[in-house]
Amino acid sequence: MSAPTAAAVLAAGFWLAAQGTAPSPLLPPASELPGGWMAASPPEIYEREGLYGYINGGSEIFLQYDFRRVDVGRYRKDEAGRTKDITLDVFRMGSDREAFGIFSIQRQGGEQSLDLGGAPNWVSPSQASLAAGPVFVNLVGAETSAEDMAEFLRLVGKRLSDAGHRPFRPEGHPGPWTGLPRKDLQEDTLRYLQGPLAAQGESEILAAPFWGFGSGTAGASARYSPDGRKLVLLEFPAEPAALLEPVRGVFAQYLTEVRAEGSVLEGRTAAGQVFLFGQRGRRAALVFGKKDGHGARALLAETLK
Amino acid sequence: MDHDELLELTGDNNAAVPEAVSRRGFFRLGAAGAAGFALSRTLRAQDKPAEHKPPAQQPADIKTNVDEVRAIPRTKDSMPGLFPGRVVKVETGQAVADGRIDAGRVEKAVARGMAELTGESDPARAWALFVKPQDIVGIKINPIGGKTISTKPEVVDAVIAGLLAAGVPKSNSVIWDRRLHQMPDAGFTAERFPGVALAGTEMRGPNNDFYDEAGELWAKDNIDRQAKFYFADLEMPYNKNLLAAMLNQGKESYFTKVVTQKVTKIINVPILKNSGGTATLCLKNLAYGALSNTSRLHKIWAKSVAEPNGFPYLRDKAVLNIVDALQAQYDKGPGPNPQFVYDAGLMMFGTDPVAVDAVAHEYLVKVRVEKGVQQFDNARNREYLDLAAGLGLGVAARDKITLREIALG
């Protein structure tokens, strides 16, 4: 055992003796940390009513995904005259789907990922993330490399796997994502939308109260090849009254050339991009397309058929 | 030694105090990043799992006491200050590259920005428009993003240099934020800023806990319960852990004694990041940085960002805003998300916090649209600007704002 590792073990033991509590089960113990890394401070744990004490701005979106608790570990490594820092947040959400949901809205698509037994994840030099079971993991690094972050992510992924937390695979569960056409779907852009803030994060159009986010409406979104057009599919708890007119009002607020063709509403942004809306039963779809609108119209038709 | 003494962490003044027995000495260690973690206990909110409650809906109209402060006479320093509706935006060139800061270029950018704002090319004369040598000047930073996205120490260096030029000694400057314990991670330590005080509201004590052995908050006397408080007719139950960060429960938010008692002027040095589809900088940095009991206020976000700035402790003292947008975060803010942090290379200057926020909002929405995370602006995201303008704190209407854009080589 290296001297720094031994010191970390001693420090951890001291904390435990002082506090008389078990260590956080999901945070890696000092004995498992990658070479040269040490815990920089004791673990912190924040539960539902205490989240604002950790994330004063930005707590609400976690609460809307039924946040239960976060275990925070801080780690440090001195290397070549520089101090590297990693903050590891292990969020326990209300369910597997909610952990996947909060994970999914934090990614853009196209990020580098690791083979972690099917657990969705991504890694960059300064940030990394994964979801497994009801757990969402976020790592933030300073002065770190992608290799540093990957090392930690593998470590945490293994602990989650050992604890029996399995990856959530949307395709194996009912949910709004089942209505997304599979052809040309970019898998790493799939998002599960729960609550008003996640919806608004997709588009200001979804900020209108009549969509019912926060009272049972959920959604899924994804981008499609080759042009990156985006589909947002909404699933209502019950078939709503016709939405065409309220949506027309919102379109008119933000878009130009707003017109209805049958049951499909179309408008354009100031930059000329086509926006489409259509509804069928308990589901509604919005497509944010490119200027020619061709791909967007085809995607909406495929979604609502 | 009472709890008030915890409010302040000085640089040089601490040197003579034996660290082994001194609370200040303890914080000095903490500021150096060497706080004795072996003394601490794990932070635990509760031992039993929290009961799930559905997300609350935003109340339509929650009453506040902002009307009580409208009548308080204004001073010559009151917001929007010397230059209502004027904003200077400086593209700093290579002041930041891959997150590394060029202190020399930052200094030049600050000098140029101040000259453009004031019309005074001599830094001493420019800064003297806002401060006098006898002022106690609070430099309000934002350290909550740690190393990822926080006010850069190099920008504060330039501010201190400006204050020195105007005759304000270092010992009259106070770098402050609500959370003293987050300042070291962002680079604000007594060693980095010798002779300048560091102050906060929430803080841990010598036992590295927020509570003393009697179960009292170490920081309980850091808020001013005698001064006029911000009332909002809503409350939220806090557990022990969250209370440590909020300092009190109920419908009152108290101002920190840093602004009610300690400082006579405030230089506001916020950073640029998004909160949903809006930008948060000058107004929020002051309001949420100066108040206790803020968790509940997120339910009335626009009001609670704007209205506390109408209280004299902020309205009459915050005389200058210097936005550190050398790096900015365009999505998944306000918490730090490195994935969305980029080298913006900008600084903004203004006495009018509403106008600066309006310009920054316009800029950030443009970036968000270009990055594909937003399609267009929403008037609702500008509500806090209109509320602040309605309180006479500045100019929100974009067509009434004079924007001077400077590009440095």
Explain what the structure shows.
The complex is a heterodimer of chains A (305) and B (409). Helix content of chain A is 26%, strand content 30%. The longest helix of chain A is centred in the N-terminal third of the chain and has 17 residues, at 3-19. Chain A starts with a helix and ends with a helix. Residues 1-22 of chain A have low confidence and may be disordered. With 305 residues, chain A is of the alpha+beta class. Chain A has helices spanning 3-19, 59-64, 96-104, 146-162, 196-202, 244-254, 294-304; strands at residues 38-39, 44-47, 67-79, 82-93, 121-123, 127-132, 135-142, 191-194, 218-224, 229-235, 256-261, 264-268, 274-280, 283-288. Chain B is an alpha/beta fold and 409 residues long. Chain B contains 12 helices and 15 strands. In chain B, strands 1, 2, 5, 6, 7, 10, 11, 12, 13, 14 and 15 form an 11-stranded mixed β-sheet that branches. Chain B has a two-stranded antiparallel ribbon with strand order 3-4. In chain B, helix 3 (103-118) crosses helix 5 (153-165). Chain B starts with 7 loop residues before the first strand and ends with a strand. The interface between A and B is large, with 64 and 57 residues.
Tell me the total number of β-strands of chain B. 15
Q: Tell me the helix content of chain B.
A: 25-40%
**β-strand amount of chain B:** 15-25%
Report the C-alpha radius of gyration of chain B, rounded.
20 Å
